[in-house]
């Protein structure tokens, strides 16, 4: 008795600074229409999918920073996407910069939402693993100031939606095994991940040519080791002079890639995912109740970083990394 | 200033039940000589490398079970390997079944040791993730009774040896991201892993054709996500009618395979591993001190298994899995 969920990749090509949200939302709507035409019930869009990837710039003016953030969701610019979602019965994952009003004041998050097939937001996630750096580092070809512009979220909670157990993560989260495991321990059956990943990594340019490999490796391992589908979606191509990887793909609980985008532009691809396929792994090799040994995992939560190098020294990041 | 360590894969073909330890040790010595001839300083042998993989049989007679275990190490049968190690200056990793005398009586472990270039044991590890089952399950083509014959070890401690930080794991440990992370948090630079992995997995035969892929995927992800070398070594081929995967390989901190065995028999392969290469990852993408978020990882140590299925049920293993 399979539980099929038809899931579409909603990969975006670049969004330049001059592009308006209205223009971008029209592109998202076009991808959603394409997905609907081939039977998709859910489409996954990238991280920060409404604007250019602004953390590449050091910006001091608070109003200018806030211009990249959404103060409410939906809002006037994104309402057409919610309306289309409801009209077509296609849910979506969308990443955006969120300006939240909290008791302590305004807080900025790198956020994703899950919208069901009736156009209603059913879950929100705030990125935990913010990469990059906090201070201006002019030696870099471009900045990666996520640690400056965003506050980290609390963690991962799964949602019962689309006939299964759905979780969300964002970009750098996908490189950390903990991300998938925390959701795996909640029975996740599909993890949705949007990303923006420059080909060039300033602190370690010697592995720029491995960016696509690392992207896929991390998601394949997360899928296999937790018996879950993983859907990774890029904002790809050359955006404001910075080239970003594509490689959007859908990965089965076996770790196998079952759908993939081929370009670095706006592109839709689809897979029919059987959520019951997860059980083949969750009930055998990765039956956590039978096989996990949490008493041996203490350091994972007790310790943040490393304490030993080859000569007994503490690993320390070089300045500016 | 590279820190090179020349590491050899000491893959074994099958060991039949009738093969004596003396015969097996002669094969290990031959592999060590081959490794020494091409400059190896360390050779890694498989899990349970002194006998056939006896957990495939349900055995009731205690004396017969114990016949597969070592009561001391080194012992008369293995002394020639230790002597050769000292004579050649080649250290080794060796997996074997250990019968330990503890205050509570005799305890059986699935164990590995690390021997330095002077032939001295410098570390011992006891397998944490024991796969398989505890009771006799005659429906299986062959048994996998590790949970019956072995007690789980406490966890992973790294050792300063061979000019770097070395860790050990055994077989099924390599599928669990926690294994690598607990050592990564101790600054590990090379993880040594012996394994015996049947091609056929009785509870989930539909992914038998993925056994080699899963083997490599797990080790590649563990290497990349912790910035460490990983050395995986099989006992391969058809042993007492059961076909096991080969796929022994050495994986760089980039996740790339740099050396590989090609057969399912006794085979040596080598790589020159720069331990300083780890830092390229440990100090950038996987700088744990900068980027890990342990406050969000609580479930990993708080919870052993899953609690939610798609319909809110608890995942439960089918009988006999």
Automatic annotation (TrEMBL), chains A, B:
It comes from the Bacteria. Residues 5-277 form the CN hydrolase domain. The keyword Protease does not apply. GO terms for molecular function: acyltransferase activity; hydrolase activity, acting on carbon-nitrogen (but not peptide) bonds, in linear amides. InterPro entries: Aliph_Amidase/BUP, C-N_Hydrolase, C-N_Hydrolase_sf. Keywords: Acyltransferase, Hydrolase, Lipoprotein, Transferase. The keyword Hydrolase applies. This is Nitrilase/cyanide hydratase and apolipoprotein N-acyltransferase. It comes from Albidiferax ferrireducens (strain ATCC BAA-621 / DSM 15236 / T118).
């Amino acid at each position: 008795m399979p539980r099929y969920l038809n899931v579409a990749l909603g990969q975006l090509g670049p969004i330049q600074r001059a592009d308006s949200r209205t223009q971008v939302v029209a592109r998202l709507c076009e991808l959603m229409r394409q997905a609907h035409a081939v039977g998709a019930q859910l489409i996954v869009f990238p991280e920060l999918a409404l604007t250019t990837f602004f953390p590449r710039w050091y910006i001091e003016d608070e109003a200018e920073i806030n211009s990249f953030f959404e103060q409410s969701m939906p809002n006037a610019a994104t309402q057409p996407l919610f309306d289309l979602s409801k009209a077509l019965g296609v849910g979506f994952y969308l990443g955006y910069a969120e300006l939240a009003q909290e008791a302590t004041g305004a807080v900025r998050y790198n956020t994703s939402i899950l919208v069901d097939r009736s156009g209603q937001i059913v879950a929100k996630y705030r990125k935990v693993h913010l990469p990059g750096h906090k201070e201006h580092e002019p030696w870099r070809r471009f900045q990666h100031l996520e640690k400056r512009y965003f506050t980290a979220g609390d963690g991962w909670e799964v949602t019962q939606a689309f006939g299964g157990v759905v979780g969300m993560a964002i970009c750098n989260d996908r490189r950390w095994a903990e991300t998938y495991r925390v959701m795996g321990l909640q029975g996740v059956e599909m993890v949705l991940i949007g990303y923006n990943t420059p080909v060039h990594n300033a602190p370690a340019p010697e592995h720029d040519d491995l960016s696509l490999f690392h992207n896929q490796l991390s998601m394949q391992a997360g899928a296999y080791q937790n018996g879950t589908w993983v859907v990774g979606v890029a904002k790809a191509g050359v955006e404001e002079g910075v080239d970003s990887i594509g490689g959007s793909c859908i990965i089965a609980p076996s770790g196998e890639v079952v759908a993939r985008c081929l370009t670095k532009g706006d592109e839709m691809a689809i897979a029919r995912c059987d959520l019951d396929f997860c059980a083949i792994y969750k009930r055998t090799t990765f039956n956590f109740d039978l096989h996990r040994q949490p008493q041996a995992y203490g350091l994972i939560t007790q310790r943040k970083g490393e304490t030993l190098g080859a000569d007994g020294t503490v690993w320390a990041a070089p300045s500016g990394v």
